[in-house]
């Protein structure tokens, strides 16, 4: 399973990249606006910090012709850029066009398996299935993730299921259990994946015992 960080903040990308377990970065218009920096500058800096990762950058037009122009522009910035496209009618047509041209896409704002079917048929590289926003309206966001993973396997689609709108580590656990290919999350959630009280307790005990015995690895 791949781990992506969901941010437009360069310092957060740098931190996640330093852990050595980062497979990519997702951004969206809200996150880019929050960064206070220009879109192209931010995306190119992210590409530099995560040289082997998939970097999602989203188009903002909602009509096919302008979306296509934006997609070709964004895709021309760097080979690791994946064009993020919302699941609307012209968006699905655009994903098909880009897929036919060998340009990778991330279909975003997907909330149901029927939407995911359209994205998969159009040839989306990633299908971004939002979970937190569904939980927010008292439904179970993971249902569509599980159904979409099953659909991908049943019909042998090539798309990868990307779990987005991740709010806590349990979402990551559930994404693993569902067999999702990728989870993207804010840095704060990624840092929480390290945490276990027994790790802290166990480490303290190891080090106390070692120090009491006056042992060392490196010559003092
Ligand atoms: O779509 C993707 C990943 O492809 C994400 O960037 C996605 O936009 C974000 O995970 C969500 O917007 C964050 O959702 P929320 O926590 O604000 O509900």
UniProtKB/TrEMBL annotation:
<keyword id="KW-0704">Schiff base</keyword>
<dbReference type="InterPro" id="IPR018225">
    <property type="entry name" value="Transaldolase_AS"/>
</dbReference>
<dbReference type="InterPro" id="IPR013785">
    <property type="entry name" value="Aldolase_TIM"/>
</dbReference>
<dbReference type="GO" id="GO:0005737">
    <property type="term" value="C:cytoplasm"/>
</dbReference>
<dbReference type="GO" id="GO:0005975">
    <property type="term" value="P:carbohydrate metabolic process"/>
</dbReference>
<dbReference type="InterPro" id="IPR001585">
    <property type="entry name" value="TAL/FSA"/>
</dbReference>
<dbReference type="InterPro" id="IPR004731">
    <property type="entry name" value="Transaldolase_3B/F6P_aldolase"/>
</dbReference>
<keyword id="KW-0963">Cytoplasm</keyword>
<dbReference type="InterPro" id="IPR033919">
    <property type="entry name" value="TSA/FSA_arc/bac"/>
</dbReference>
<dbReference type="GO" id="GO:0016832">
    <property type="term" value="F:aldehyde-lyase activity"/>
</dbReference>
<dbReference type="Pfam" id="PF00923">
    <property type="entry name" value="TAL_FSA"/>
</dbReference>
<protein>
    <submittedName>
        <fullName>Transaldolase</fullName>
    </submittedName>
</protein>
């Amino acid at each position: 399973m791949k781990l992506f960080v969901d941010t437009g903040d360069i310092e957060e990308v740098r931190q996640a990249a330093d852990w050595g377990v980062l497979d990519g970065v997702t951004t969206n218009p809200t996150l880019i606006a929050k960064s206070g920096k220009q879109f192209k500058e931010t995306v190119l800096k992210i590409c530099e910090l995560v040289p082997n990762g998939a970097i999602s950058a989203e188009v903002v037009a909602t009509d096919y012709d302008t979306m296509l122009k934006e997609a070709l522009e964004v895709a021309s910035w760097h080979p690791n850029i994946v064009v993020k496209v919302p699941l609307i009618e012209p968006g699905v047509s655009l994903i098909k066009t880009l897929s036919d041209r060998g340009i990778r896409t991330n279909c975003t704002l997907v909330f149901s398996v029927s939407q995911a079917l359209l994205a998969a048929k159009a040839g989306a590289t990633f299908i971004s299935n939002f979970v937190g926003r569904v939980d927010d309206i008292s439904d179970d966001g993971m249902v569509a993730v599980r159904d979409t993973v099953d659909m991908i396997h049943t019909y042998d689609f090539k798309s990868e299921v990307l779990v987005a709108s991740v709010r806590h580590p349990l979402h990551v656990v559930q994404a693993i259990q569902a067999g999702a290919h990728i989870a993207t999350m804010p840095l704060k959630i990624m840092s929480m994946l390290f945490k276990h009280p027994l790790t802290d307790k166990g480490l303290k005990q190891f080090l106390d015992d070692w120090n009491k015995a006056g042992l060392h690895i490196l010559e003092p």
